[in-house]
Amino acid sequence: MEFKEAVQIALQSLWANKLRTILTLLGVVIGVASVIAVVTLVNGANTYVATKFSSYGADVFTVSKMPQIITSPEDYQRFQKRKNILFPDFKYVEANCKHCIGIGAQQSVTGKIVRGTQSTTDTSIRGYTWQMPALQNLNIVQGRGFTQADEEHASRVAIIGTDIQDHLFEGVDPLGQELRVDGTPYTIIGISEKQGSTFGASQDNWVAVPLPSFQKSYGTAKTLTIYVKAGEAGPVLETAADEVRVLVRSARHDAPGEPDSFELDTNNTLVGFFSMVTESFGAVAGGVALIALVVGGIVIMNIMLVSVTERTREIGIRKALGARPKDIMIQFLIESGTMALVGGVFGVIGGILVAQAITILAGFPSTVAFWSVFAGLVMATGTGVFFGVYPARKAAQLDPIVALRAE
């Protein structure tokens, strides 16, 4: 029997029992959809984080009181006991670092922004030294950034994110306008390029003011984060990082042999950690999806055994007309494989739709990996063929005389 004829017979058999076929496919659809959705979301998260951190520059690193990623309550308590990194620490590093192409510092709080009768809440209020927008790759699309004079004179000027522009200055040019940051008036001198959202949280709901102005309102005791630009990644960055580590230890009087009382993070460290977390999550979710596929395969095997029983007389007639055991086996393997492949196609579509729905509703980034689509289809078809071998073999071994007597 030709392969084309076998496929035609298999499809006719599946179409004749549409409801049973659909119910049988559910396990495969759920398994493949789970794999595709998880891979799409994990791939999107990794791509987003890598892009976001690389936008800061591979040659930029930070010095802070606490690491940007904390994995346990015990670590959090331990880091909390460290001394704050203060403005004099930053000035000491700024004055003595010879391998720093650029250096800045940032503090932040959450507060309320008011203009007239309108206001925003939960807004990030940032205190920046004048180089910080460039170190964070914040493009000023209107107006200007901070200058050394703004910092030295603690000027009451501000740069805003696009959320502030949209909510408080709709239809009005914000430049030169006044707003109140937790009650303190500032004049807007710049508007940043739209940053979008990260995992559903907007990155544009912020106001930046010169760090000395920020400290006049919120005090000088809060810890700050130092940003350093080395100029190049690799050995140049390592040299700058080593120099900054020595300078910060000196400024904070860390004893020789004692561990650092601060954290020095590079972008590669953060991206690597995040990738490790998402890979672990993907492995767990993939294991769950594999279980769903196995369950779907068992259902396919069960249905194929029922099909063999129902079509015993048909098998006997085909054998009497000259069909070889190999032809019978191929027919049933094609049926189980086709059934699983169709389930895989719907699973791929369903997985992509689920991932896109999560992106739309929760803002979680997603990127379709084409290798995962291919892998999902191969896994589905392989599952169908594997679990279809026993029913197909049983059908192929039927005695034609016994089969013809079946009712």
From TrEMBL:
Return the GO cellular component terms, semicolon-separated. Answer: plasma membrane
* Topology relative to the membrane: Multi-pass membrane protein
Keyword set for this entry?
Answer: Cell membrane, Membrane, Transmembrane, Transmembrane helix
| Principal place of residence | membrane
Task: Give any GO molecular function from the UniProt entry.
Answer: transmembrane transporter activity
Transmembrane ranges, per UniProt, are 21-42, 281-308, 329-362, 368-390
Compartments where found: Cell membrane
Q: Where is the MacB-like periplasmic core domain?
A: 21-233
Asked whether the keyword Cell membrane is assigned, the reply is yes
Domain ABC3 transporter permease C-terminal, which positions? 288-400
Show the PANTHER family listed in the entry: ABC TRANSPORTER PERMEASE YTRF, MEMBRANE COMPONENT OF TRANSPORTER-RELATED
**Family of the protein in this entry:** Belongs to the ABC-4 integral membrane protein family.
The protein in question is named Putative ABC transport system permease protein
Which organism encodes this protein?
Answer: Edaphobacter aggregans
